[in-house]
Amino acid sequence: MDRLSALRLFVRVVETGSITGAGRSLGLSSTAASKRMQDLEAELKVRLLDRTTRTVSATEAGRHLYDRMAGLLDELDGAMRQAGELQSRPTGVLRITARRSFGMLHVMPALPSFRAACPEVEIDLSLTETVEIAPTRGVDLVIRLGAPAEKSLVAHRLASAERVMCASPAYFATNPPPAGPDDLGRHDCLGYRHAFEPSVWVFETARGRREVAVSGPLRSNSGEVLRAAALDGLGLALLPTWMVAGDLKAGTLVRCLADTVCYPEGYREEIYAVHARTPLVPAKTRAFVEHLQEFLARSALL
């Protein structure tokens, strides 16, 4: 016997005073409803209803059960409706972990318009310098460098992998832009710190891949730090387009070797939004990914 369905029927019977009417409201025939009430009483080993040819009323035991169950079933129905709403419309708390630089430059600016479109969603945003981040318990979405290999995860592309070699006009005023990889030895290069290994810039040329170890006054694991140093004229930086597009447009950074494909070793991947693979992705997650993709497309970063 489906005990939950039987209890729902019992509560409806007490409220309507009719087994036939209660059964009809739940899609049951009079015979099926009567049989279900008999089965419930047999399982509980107590008479719940006093039946006459005209009326049905709760016994003392039935009234006690009704008083306990009516509120509990209302709460259960409310919880189930709320769970359904989380799936069908954007609501609830969306927990995001994002790469710090991308989060500050592009996720944060997208939040006001997202909140305007989805006011019932609250954002819990954590920023990190860690590269290999993935959704875990308590995290709905991560924004990371590179698509994960795990089949249990779904990745949505957010920004391109293009890297830009650039420096400030003040730096180039005293250091002519490099004409090719061979010129980097005479430049102050601002490199990503990868463990304790030298900073290496990779060039993809017609003659194949070439790696160049670079050095300069500063290394960091933070793209924001390298961008700030480049803006301050400390040297030549190799940074993602999504990070310096505004600076290039404003002229505060100047690009060089524009026709050359180059990138810091270990930092060539695109930016992705990643969530768990599930048949029922919450509406809040779907809505945020779609909004962020549209926001970035208007910025020409996709």
UniProtKB/TrEMBL annotation:
Q: Which UniProt keywords apply?
A: DNA-binding, Transcription, Transcription regulation
Q: What organism is recorded for this protein?
A: Thalassobaculum fulvum
Q: Where is the HTH lysR-type domain?
A: 1-59
Does Zinc count among this protein's keywords?
no
Q: Does the keyword GTP-binding apply?
A: no
Identify a single GO molecular function assigned to this protein. DNA binding
The UniProt entry, under PROSITE patterns, shows:
HTH_LYSR (PS50931)
Return the protein name.
LysR family transcriptional regulator
Q: What would be one Pfam family of this protein?
A: HTH_1
Q: State the family named in the UniProt similarity comment for this chain.
A: Belongs to the LysR transcriptional regulatory family.
